[in-house]
Automatic annotation (TrEMBL), chain B:
The keyword Transport applies. GO terms for cellular component: endoplasmic reticulum-Golgi intermediate compartment; perinuclear region of cytoplasm. It comes from the Eukaryota. This is Trafficking protein particle complex subunit 2. The gene is TRAPPC2. Pfam families: Sedlin_N. It is found in: Cytoplasm, Perinuclear region; Endoplasmic reticulum-Golgi intermediate compartment. The keyword Cytoplasm applies. GO terms for biological process: endoplasmic reticulum to Golgi vesicle-mediated transport.
Length: 1460, 204
């Protein structure tokens, strides 16, 4: 139980005080009313005696009474209505609230710090370790008291408003004051009248209320004298008269109102009444609305006694309530007239008082401090001289009666009982017990006399005597089975036992328990039970028996009175927390229960307070349902109490925590929240927009896009894909784009990337580099994509959703203009904002909203957040399963009208920094400037369209398409370039190409190639032409990927559009290719902020297999050709149709084979088959053979030789054939370059390397073969002719080359090695194979030689050995003719012959030199001989002994020797 | 005090890994408290791994009978060291599905309030199972305190000591296994499906 201001003894004493009635004449009443008080009120503050009083008990022992308090009440003749009492108590409780701003009263209990007295919620959770300490602390702490003044006032009012009951006498009137004013004409007469009046009230059967202690009530005559108005002499004389009549001890002259009212208003006079009257004044105002009852009560109070009306009420009361429980003695209908009157008599004056107080007059305006003393004196005099002697006398009388009866009547009674009722005793059942509990004693019954004496003793604080009397009475009542009376006696016995000084016996708690049980269960009298509980709980509490007290308090909570239950539960909760080991969780639970009851009783503030206090325990622990419930209640109560901010935050908690509530409940919460929020916003419409908690925004997922949405494809036109918000972020591709942009910027800036270069970012997201302020262009939209998430199970509807921004206009060209102007969030002339009218987020959905801004000025823009109306849709639960698109289709979603406008900020945390040591050790985040774009001046804006752009191609197919460039801005653009990783895929044509743009439709059926009709004679022989690579834009720059778009004047004016032809060649590998184009352009005017812009396009091409071309080149054995030159080669080209789609491509025709090289050319076709042209059906393969010769080489000029199989020559040296050739060449070169670079770096140091290179070189050729073909394709029963070309680059003699890049076999998984691989040394020696190619040898001899061995036994055959140096360097050759045939069988088969003459020759062959050596072979037999025995050794001239190695014997050179 | 033990979870592990009262922290602690070392958790000892499975079947069989025959409602919660619910579940009788929806918070209130009595009673008993510690209206509150001071609270409206005791011991087994997971932060809410299913299984 909460700590009380009063000590328990004080409380118990004050609970039962001697009651004195006051009966005033009208005139006296008028006098007191000048002070705004009735007589009873006037004396009220002075009713506690400050001095000790002595009294003699029946045994003549002196008994000291301390601190006696009496209660003076005006007489009122009807009992209080339970309803009125309830109302009074309710008001008392609601008025008493905890004082705001008190020092925080923190109770530390276990793991919890509870803040009891004010509303701030604070709960910290230390873990066990300090639990012991906190416990100790708690016990010694002086701060752990919590006061509950509302409970104390409730208790006080409750006890005061207890209706007088027949079974006890504690609140029966002991005495009566008769008050008459001295200003009355006949005061003595008036006294007589009042005396009669009192007598009539007490003894007439008309009035059963109020109740009087004993028949001859003490009457005390008071003459009231108004000092300011009346004559003092008269008063004195009347007083003299009174003294004679009533004795000095029975009357008093009270002089009041000595102050002249108008004077000294400013004087500070203490107002002791305020604390007593305040609560009643409120009750008073309420009583106006109380219907007829109040009106009558007012009347009756006015006239003090009313006849007819009052009786009417009682009749009413009877008829209404008679059927009620017969044992409810306190019921007005039964006891009719036991009103103790305090409150209702007070009503009258306080009515006036309230009027007065409204005009500003305080209580006691006519009283001086002397008057206060006089009143105090008066009460003291009355008590000492009048009341206490009267009580003393009465006790004595009663005692005498009891003693005298003890012997006779008691025994007589018991005897009669035994005789007459003895038989019944054993038959008593519980039912009977209950019945007998209804036993009513007559008022003067002897059993009641002892109780009466006990009560009197109790009132004058003679607790020992009281206890013994109560004890006796209790026994008597129990004997008589008068349970109701017994309960009363038990109750008071317990209290007086407790109050006995020195405590001779322990507090009999079981007495109380029995009493409570009896009151509650048998008598059904909750009021009395409650009184018992209040008393007992207070006593138990004082003995630190908190758990018993709590149990007692909890037991009395019931359905009939919410207020009482609430208060008792709250007290029980406080008991729990005051226990030795505080039960915090029990406290919290009972606070919740109390709060619930308070709210049911209409005590909203108290309910709110209870819930808030309990919240401290539950907060943040994860008891989500409980927390939701508490928050919801707090929200509701706060709302009804107009504490809207609290309400909003409470509801917010429910919604934003992970809720376990079902959808319907969430919907209800949400609606309530919105409703409350709406009220808040309505209260302050001009205030800042509130921050809304819903829906969640995943701010790091926010994406920002600069620029227009792309136009979709129009017919044949296909817009460049560029970049859009629909694309997912792909780090790989973004890296590619970045590289491309770097390349093109490097080219644009003459090979150097400017230091401040930053790749253009059109779409910013969490992966992009957001450390710089992004650039946006004026008049171009900025799209912000916000990711909303709805955590609830109900859909949310956002309306009028738009962005919130701040803008700072700035002219970037004028440097000094630093004036920064902050503009508000609106101002459509500066920035236009798009508004999304409706945006629905379904339950637990994540949805993106795209919001646009249109900047109209340059400056710095800051996007702050979003602003929207938050609402729900009607029938939210019903829509749960529905397809949301239905709602969207119908256009207008039915909002249930509840929506609030609010904002949410977008705050994006940058990436965590991890560069410096400091950043690594601490947690720091970089800035994220995604939402702070700088609006720059106008820039050109390019749009690119592709016309007739294919989606599918054969590998190597050539297709002509058109590109349209449109400048859609107001600025001219220039320096248009395109960059791609696959420059061999497309071409705009070389410089030699005709730039007259043919319209796409006109060229539809034409060949992509430039052709010339040839005459048939030129068949199979090469037609020559030449071109240099520079003409085709290849090889000029270091970046072959960057291609300048050939614009007229290289400027595209605003609004202008240009169509350019573009040839495409299907990539050599089959499959789907994504080819990225990056278009680069600049403005004519240079800006400080933005130098260039880019446009992206990704083309997706699906290629299917067409031809596979393989070629080998080998040295021709014929050392001399027709022209007598020694260098010629044979080129074998294998063409295979590897197309697999049988339906599409019918057949391929190889229409032309071209060569291009700096040093070689195809000369003629060596006919293999007789077919005119080479047709290749599916899976067919053709072999073509060509003769190639060396041709004169000019620097960087390629010789093109076309061998035409049809009747049209495709000029291979023109666009597009040559373009693609050069592109493929350059890409190959690049590839080779990369490889050779790696080799070179490894072996550069080796001196021998040069030699190897030379030797290698002699087997190298640089012949490129272009196979041009046509494919006949049937598509939709139409025949189409497709054209294409394949390139084969021949580098090495004898090595097969392929048209498609050979797939490298994936190396198998190898063990990961953790050491550096040793540098594999470059081959220091040329391989034998390479060396064998150094010198080409051939033997010339007759195939058969006829010789007559008869004539001459030796046959001499001249043989010419031709040596040809294939290398570019001088070569020393050693020819060794000595027989050194290793194989013995060769000897057997061929026999032997000998070379005659010099057996070893040493020669030096110059580069490309052909040398013939005349040899003679000598045969002795006929037969077949192999002449290939000479061994040729070669070495490079400048090398000394290195590399001497044998030449390969190629073919056996057979000679037949015949004998004639 | 037991509260001062450095790592309550270690106890749970110790209890599982060596079922004999270990001469380690657990044994010492228990000795200090005068609480006899728990007979291998709840009277089941011996070959753990094999036997436990078998026991599970037996127990689940028993319990399913109990729960099927009773049309009572239950609310079970594991409460962590900071009075935070670690795991919650409830069973309603088959007839009234979700009908008590608006009173679900009451379960939490009652269980939470009973913690005071649980904390009080666990020092008075030598057993982990504390029987019925509290009562509110029609609800009985039974409790079980593990060696690591996790509190199992069961709300039930029908008295059923044996069934609940068995249930608690099964859950204790499960809980220990769960707590051994190195990725499980002690006292954090259990969201695992495994423990859910295993607890819910006998019911349905």
């Amino acid at each position: 139980m909460a700590q009380c201001v009063q000590s328990v003894q004080e409380f118990l004493q004050d609970a039962f005080v001697p009651l004195v009635a006051a009966l005033c004449s009208d005139e006296a009443e008028r006098l007191t009313r000048r002070n705004g008080l009735s007589f009873a009120e006037l004396v009220k503050p002075f009713c506690r005696l400050t001095s000790e009083v002595h009294m003699r008990d029946p045994n003549n022992q002196l008994h000291i009474i301390k601190n006696l308090k009496i209660a003076v009440n005006n007489i009122i003749t009807h009992p209080p209505q339970p309803g009125a009492i309830r109302k009074l108590l309710n008001d008392v409780v609601s008025v008493s609230q905890p004082a705001e701003g008190l020092v925080a009263n923190v109770i530390t209990a276990g793991d919890y710090d509870l803040n009891i007295s004010d509303r701030s919620i604070k709960a910290s959770v230390p873990w066990y370790s300090n639990w012991k300490e906190t416990l100790m602390e708690l016990n010694t702490s002086t701060f752990y008291t919590a006061t509950t003044p509302w409970f104390e006032s409730y208790r006080e009012s409750f006890l005061q408003s207890m209706p007088a009951s027949d079974h006890e006498f504690l609140n029966h009137y002991v005495a009566c004051m008769l008050v008459v004013s001295s200003s009355e004409p006949e005061p003595v007469e008036q006294f007589l009248k009042l005396s009669q009046e009192q007598h009539r009230i007490q003894h007439s059967s008309d009035y059963l209320y109020p109740k009087w202690f004993i028949p001859n009530t003490l009457k005390y005559y008071v003459l009231l004298h108004d000092v300011s108005a009346g004559e003092e002499q008269r008063a004195d004389s009347i007083y003299e008269e009174m003294k004679q009549r009533y004795g000095t001890q029975g009357c008093y002259l009270l002089k009041i109102n000595s102050r002249v009212s108008n004077r000294g208003v400013d004087e500070q006079i203490p107002d002791p009444w305020s604390q007593y009257l305040q609560k009643n004044s409120i009750q008073n105002q309420e009583s106006y609305e109380d219907g007829p009852y109040t009106v009558i009560s007012n009347k009756s109070a006015d006239h003090l006694i009313s006849d007819g009306l009052d009786i009417d009420i009682r009749v009413d009361g009877l008829s209404n309530n008679f059927k009620a429980h017969p044992l409810q003695l306190d019921h007005p209908s039964d006891t009719s007239g036991t009103l103790d009157g305090t409150d209702f008599i007070k009503t009258t004056p306080s009515l006036h008082e309230s009027k007065k107080s409204s005009s500003g007059t305080p209580h006691g305006a006519c009283l001086t401090l002397t008057d206060h003393d006089r009143i105090r004196q008066f009460i003291q005099e009355f008590t000492f001289r009048g009341l206490l002697p009267h009580i003393e006398k009465t006790i004595r009388q009663l005692n005498d009666q009891l003693i005298s009866r003890k012997g006779l009547s008691r025994s007589l009674f018991s005897a009669t009982k035994k005789w007459f009722g003895g038989g019944k005793v054993p038959e008593k059942s519980i039912n009977e017990l209950k019945n007998t509990s209804g036993l009513l004693y007559p008022p003067e019954a002897p059993e009641l006399q002892i109780r009466k004496m006990a009560d009197l003793c109790f009132l004058v604080q003679h607790y020992e005597l009281a206890y013994s009397c109560y004890h006796t009475a209790k026994k008597d009542f129990l004997n008589d089975q008068a349970m109701f009376y017994a309960a009363g006696a038990l109750e008071m016995a317990a209290v007086s036992a407790f109050l006995q000084p020195g405590a001779p016996r322990p507090y009999p708690a079981h007495y109380m328990d029995t009493a409570i049980q009896t009151y509650r269960d048998i008598c059904k009298n909750m009021v009395l039970a409650e009184r018992c509980v209040l008393l007992s709980a207070e006593i138990l509490k004082s003995q630190s028996k908190y758990s018993e007290a709590a149990a007692l308090l909890i037991r009395l909570t019931s359905e009939d009175s919410d207020l009482r239950s609430a208060l008792l539960l709250e007290q029980a909760a406080h008991c729990f927390i005051n226990m030795k080991s505080p039960m915090v969780r029990k406290f919290a639970f009972h606070m919740i229960l109390a709060g619930h009851r308070f709210s049911k009783a209409g005590q909203k503030k108290h309910a709110l307070r209870c819930y808030c206090q309990a919240m401290q325990v539950y907060k943040g622990k994860g008891w989500s349902l409980a927390e939701d419930h508490i928050n919801f209640t707090i929200g509701r109560q706060s709302f009804t109490l107009r504490q809207l901010d609290n309400a909003v935050s409470a509801f917010r908690h429910i919604l934003i925590n992970d809720s376990k509530q079902p959808a319907a409940q969430q919907g209800a919460f949400l609606r309530e929240y919105l409703y409350v929020y709406k009220n808040v916003t309505q209260l302050s419409p001009d205030g800042p927009l509130p921050q809304l908690p819903l829906p969640y925004i995943n701010s790091s997922a926010t994406r920002v896009f600069f620029g227009h949405n792309r136009r979709p494809a129009e017919g044949e036109k296909q817009a460049a894909t560029h970049i859009s918000l629909d694309q997912e972020y792909d780090s790989e591709s973004s890296q590619q784009w970045k590289e491309l942009e770097e390349q093109v910027v490097a080219v644009a800036n003459k090979g150097i990337i400017p230091s401040n270069f930053q790749p253009t970012q059109y779409c910013l997201n969490s992966y992009s580099d957001n450390s710089r302020f992004p650039l946006a262009v004026v008049e171009e939209p900025i799209t912000v994509e916000v990711a909303f998430r709805n955590p609830l199970k109900v859909p949310l509807l956002l309306t009028d959703l738009s962005l919130l921004w701040k803008f700072q206009p700035k002219d970037f060209n004028v440097k000094h203009n630093e004036e920064t102007k902050e503009l508000g969030v609106c101002g459509s002339d500066v920035i236009g904002a798009e508004v999304i009218a409706e945006f629905l987020i379904n339950s637990e959905e994540t949805k993106m909203a795209r919001l646009k801004l249109f900047p109209h000025q340059t400056g710095e823009l800051h996007i702050l957040g979003v602003v929207y109306n938050l609402g729900t849709i009607q029938g939210s639960t019903a829509l749960d399963g529905l397809d949301p698109s239905i709602g969207m289709q119908t256009g207008k979603l039915v909002s249930n009208g509840l929506s609030v406008r609010g904002r949410q900020d977008l705050e994006i945390q940058g990436p965590r920094l991890n560069n410096t040591k400091e950043e690594k050790t601490s947690i720091k985040y970089g800035p994220d400037r995604r939402l702070d774009p700088i609006i720059t001046e106008e820039m050109p804006l390019l749009e690119v369209f592709f016309i007739n752009f294919p989606t599918g191609l054969l590998c190597g197919e050539i297709r002509k398409a058109y590109v349209e460039f449109v400048n859609v801005s107001k600025c001219p653009l220039t320096a248009l370039k395109v960059v791609s990783k696959h420059p061999e895929f497309f071409t705009f044509g070389g410089n030699t190409a005709i730039l007259t743009p043919l319209s796409p439709s006109a060229s539809e059926n034409c060949s992509a190639y430039k052709t010339v009709v040839t005459d048939s004679t030129s068949l199979h022989t090469a037609l020559l032409s030449s071109a240099s690579s520079g003409d085709f834009g290849v090889g000029t720059g270091s970046q072959p990927e960057v291609i300048h778009v050939p614009l007229l004047d290289s400027v595209l004016l605003p609004g202008a559009s240009v169509q350019l032809p573009m040839w495409l060649r299907g990539p050599d590998e089959e499959g789907v290719h994504e080819i990225n184009f990056l278009f680069y352009y600049e403005s004519i005017r240079k800006h400080s902020k933005m130098c260039h812009r880019v446009l992206r396009h990704t083309a997706v091409i699906c290629t299917s297999r067409s031809l596979n071309v393989r070629a080998t080149v080998s040295r021709s054995n014929a050392l001399e050709d027709e022209e007598g030159r020694g260098d010629n080669m044979l080129v074998f080209v294998d063409v295979e149709n590897i197309n697999t789609s049988e339906t599409g491509v019918k057949e391929f025709h190889v229409v032309q084979v071209s060569s291009n090289s700096k040093h070689w050319k195809l000369q003629k076709s060596v006919k293999v088959s007789e077919d005119k042209d080479t047709k290749l059906a599916s899976r067919e393969r053709a072999k073509l053979c060509f003769k190639a010769v060396r041709c004169k080489s000019f620097d960087e000029t390629y010789t093109f030789a076309d061998i035409v199989f049809g009747n049209e020559q495709i000029i291979s040296s023109a666009s597009p054939c040559a373009d693609f050739f050069f592109r493929s060449l350059s890409s190959q070169l690049k590839r080779a370059h990369v490889q050779s670079n790696t080799h070179a770096s490894q072996a550069a140091a080796k001196q021998s390397f040069e030699a190897v290179r030379l030797i290698q070189k002699c087997s190298e050729v640089d012949l490129n073969i272009v196979v041009l073909w046509k494919a006949y394709v049937v598509e939709d029963s139409k025949q189409l002719i497709l054209e294409g070309q394949h390139h084969v680059a021949l580098h090495t003699i004898g090595k097969e080359a392929f048209s498609f890049p050979q797939k490298l076999e994936q190396p198998e998984m190898v063990l990961l090695k953790f050491f550096r691989p040793e540098n594999t040394p470059a081959p220091t020696r040329p391989t034998p194979e390479q060396l064998s190619n150094l010198i080409k040898t051939s033997l010339r001899y007759p195939e058969s030689f006829n010789h007559s061995f008869h004539q001459k036994s030796l046959c001499l055959v001249p043989v010419t050995l031709l040596l040809s140096n294939c290398s570019q360097a001088d070569v020393d050759v050693i020819i060794d003719l000595r027989h050194k045939t290793t194989s013995p069988e060769a000897l057997e088969v061929h026999g032997s012959f000998t070379w005659l003459g010099q057996t070893q020759y040493k020669l030096q062959l110059k580069s490309q030199e052909v040398y013939s050596l005349q040899l003679k072979a000598c045969f002795v037999h006929t037969g077949v001989y192999n002449l290939g025995t000479p061994r040729v050794f070669a070495k490079l001239a400048d090398q000394v002994t290195l590399f001497e190695t044998s030449q390969q014997n190629s073919m056996p050179a057979l000679i037949i020797i015949n004998n004639i | 005090m037991r509260n001062h033990l450095a790592e309550p979870r270690l106890l749970e592990r110790a209890a599982l890994s060596c079922y004999q009262p270990p001469p380690t922290a657990l044994g010492r602690t228990l000795a200090r408290f005068g609480r006899p070392p728990p007979s291998p958790p709840l009277g089941r000892g011996g070959a753990i791994s094999l036997r436990r499975n078998r026991c599970r079947h037996e127990i689940t069989g028993d319990r399913s009978i109990i729960l099927k025959t009773m049309s009572a409602s239950f609310y079970f919660v594991i409460v962590g060291h900071h009075d935070n619910p670690v795991f919650e579940t409830e069973w309603l009788p088959p007839g009234k599905v979700e009908s008590k929806d608006d009173h679900r918070h009451l379960n939490q209130f009652i269980a939470h309030a009973a913690l005071d009595l649980v904390d009080e009673n666990m020092w008075l008993s030598n057993n982990m199972y504390l029987k019925t510690v509290d009562k509110f209206n029609e609800w009985f509150v039974s409790a079980f305190v593990t060696a690591g001071h996790m509190r199992f609270i069961m709300l039930h409206d029908v008295r059923q000591e044996d069934g609940i005791k068995n249930f608690f011991s099964d859950v204790y087994d499960l809980y220990i296994k769960f707590a051994m997971n190195p990725f499980y932060e002690p006292n954090s809410p259990i969201r695992s499906n495994a423990i859910n299913l295993n607890i819910l299984f006998p019911k349905f």
